[in-house]
């Protein structure tokens, strides 16, 4: 085996990128990237009827959104069919595989008789040791010669040593009667040819490992390190399915979760590093190890995802957050922000990203920067703009006309104005929110004024002071 770690993600392009697949890809990516290794992508498109270019694109888009970059070109499994068949023929020539001429009817009859006698229904072909000179001129499959005694031990980094008695293994078919290779053969040949050193995948593949090891051993190839990870369950402890909510990574992007929050949450789903919940990509790469993966299925928890997403939005670089916000708008079929609005939103990021858990929440808070005059207040905000409030705004506006536009100065002007009016600043906040944003829930009045600038702030206050209530 080479010294360099090589992992792979090998999805079937029959639909979107499932959340479970995304976590498998993330674990493989983290393991390789944290060790200076390579992370490869193989599209297992051998099911020609169900594999579609659209599904392949959905997988590529999902990985791109999650920021899981792969090395080199994505490999198509279907394109390697001739190479897979060639390996089966090599095993045939070496006497480690054989031609089986049994028909489906004969196999079925064998199983029914075995069941009636209380014997194992595992098919034992009479052609395994047959003299090639007696082979008929008829269709055949190529089967591997499975070991018949002893046991196969799958040394798994997550599950521990898993022992399977060899008399439980059948002589697996490698080539169908039409000469096409089976999936189990294709996986092994591709993993070997791609130099994969560590196979990290769902534990629903654990039973496949023993059968795939037969091919590795028959070819004299190094067996990769296995790491079979438990599946993801819903909050009710049952296998994650549509009834639990979103299954595809694309849906989480459209719900407005930031990719960093999603990566952090998926990494914590079944893997732990002490009590650490929130961590950066760099920390995840440094810390991730197969030993930290639990043996029990992880439960998907939307509240934890939201909490981590909020922390990542708060910690994000403003420009990077704006870039991802634009990506969210495109993914949801909305118009991206114009240059002018984007500049304003980036300027406002410091007061938008605290306590926003998703991009829709961030946009809601940014409404004051996204809306244009005339500001039309919503029903609740409109109630704050009665005749008394409007006359107060009319008095306040000239006070702000010559003020230096800093938070301290604005705050002083407002506080002194409220004192002269023998009221508290809190009483002014409602009308000011309504005038500046047309909403009753917004960032702080001072932050909105600083972001909008003096000219636009005064224009909005003047307009609101002159508006008739109702």
Automatic annotation (TrEMBL):
Motif 'HIGH' region, residue numbers: 11-21
EC number(s) per entry: 6.1.1.17
Nucleotide-binding in keyword set: yes
Short motif 'KMSKS' region, span: 239-243
Catalytic activity: tRNA(Glu) + L-glutamate + ATP = L-glutamyl-tRNA(Glu) + AMP + diphosphate
Signal peptide positions (record): none
Cell location: Cytoplasm
Pfam (any one): Anticodon_2
Entry binding sites for ATP: 242
Alphabetized InterPro entries for the sequence: aa-tRNA-synth_I_cd-bd (IPR045462), aa-tRNA-synth_I_codon-bd_sub2 (IPR020751), aa-tRNA-synth_I_CS (IPR001412), aa_tRNA-synth_I_cd-bd_sf (IPR008925), Glu-tRNA-ligase_bac/mito (IPR004527), Glu/Gln-tRNA-synth (IPR000924), Glu/Gln-tRNA-synth_Ib_cat-dom (IPR020058), GluQ/Sye (IPR049940)
UniProt entry keywords in alphabetical sequence: Aminoacyl-tRNA synthetase, ATP-binding, Cytoplasm, Ligase, Nucleotide-binding, Protein biosynthesis
GO function term, MF aspect, one: glutamate-tRNA ligase activity
UniProt family annotation: Belongs to the class-I aminoacyl-tRNA synthetase family. Glutamate--tRNA ligase type 1 subfamily.
Binding partners and assembly: Monomer.
Protein name as catalogued: Glutamate--tRNA ligase
Organism, as annotated: Lacimonas salitolerans
């Amino acid at each position: 085996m080479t010294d360099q770690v090589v992992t792979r993600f090998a999805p079937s392009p029959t639909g979107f990128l499932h959340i479970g697949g995304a976590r498998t890809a993330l674990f493989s990516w983290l393991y390789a990237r944290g060790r200076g290794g390579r992370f490869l992508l193989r599209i297992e498109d051998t099911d020609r009827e169900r594999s579609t270019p659209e599904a392949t694109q959905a997988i590529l888009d999902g990985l791109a959104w999650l920021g899981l970059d792969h090395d080199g070109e994505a490999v198509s499994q279907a394109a390697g069919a001739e190479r897979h068949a060639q390996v089966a023929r090599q095993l045939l020539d070496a006497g480690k595989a054989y031609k089986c001429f049994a028909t489906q009817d004969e196999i079925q009859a064998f199983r029914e008789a075995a069941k009636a006698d209380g014997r194992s229904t595992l098919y034992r072909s009479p052609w395994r040791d047959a003299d090639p000179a007696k082979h008929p001129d008829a269709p055949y499959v190529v089967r591997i010669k499975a070991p018949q005694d002893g046991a196969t031990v799958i040394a798994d980094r997550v599950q521990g040593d898993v022992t399977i008695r060899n008399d439980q293994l059948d002589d697996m078919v490698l080539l169908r009667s039409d000469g096409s290779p089976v999936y189990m053969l294709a996986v092994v040949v591709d993993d070997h040819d791609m130099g994969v050193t560590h196979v990290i995948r769902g534990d629903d593949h654990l039973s496949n490992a023993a059968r795939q090891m037969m091919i590795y051993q028959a070819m004299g190839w190094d067996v990769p390190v296995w790491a079979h990870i438990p599946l993801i369950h819903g909050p009710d402890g049952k296998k994650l399915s549509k009834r639990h909510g979103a299954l595809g990574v694309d849906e989480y992007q459209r719900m407005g979760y930031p990719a960093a929050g999603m990566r952090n949450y998926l990494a914590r789903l079944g893997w732990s590093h002490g009590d650490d919940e929130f961590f950066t990509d760099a920390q995840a790469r440094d810390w991730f190890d197969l030993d930290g993966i639990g043996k029990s299925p992880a439960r998907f928890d939307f509240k934890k995802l939201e909490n981590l997403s909020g922390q990542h939005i708060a910690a994000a670089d403003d420009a990077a957050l704006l870039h991802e916000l634009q990506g969210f708008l495109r993914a949801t079929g909305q118009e991206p922000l114009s240059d002018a609005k984007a500049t304003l939103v980036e300027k406002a990021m410091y007061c938008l990203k605290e306590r926003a858990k998703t991009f829709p929440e961030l946009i809601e808070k940014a409404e004051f920067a996204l809306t244009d005059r005339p500001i039309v207040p919503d029903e609740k905000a409109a109630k704050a703009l009665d005749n008394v409030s409007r006359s107060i705004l009319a008095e306040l506006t000239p006070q702000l006309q010559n003020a230096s536009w800093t938070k301290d100065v604005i705050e002083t002007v407002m506080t002194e104005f409220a004192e002269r009016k023998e009221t508290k600043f809190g009483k002014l906040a409602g009308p000011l929110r309504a005038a500046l944003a047309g909403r009753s829930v917004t960032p702080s009045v001072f932050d909105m004024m600083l972001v909008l600038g003096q000219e636009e702030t005064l224009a909005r206050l003047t307009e609101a002071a002159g508006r008739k209530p109702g």
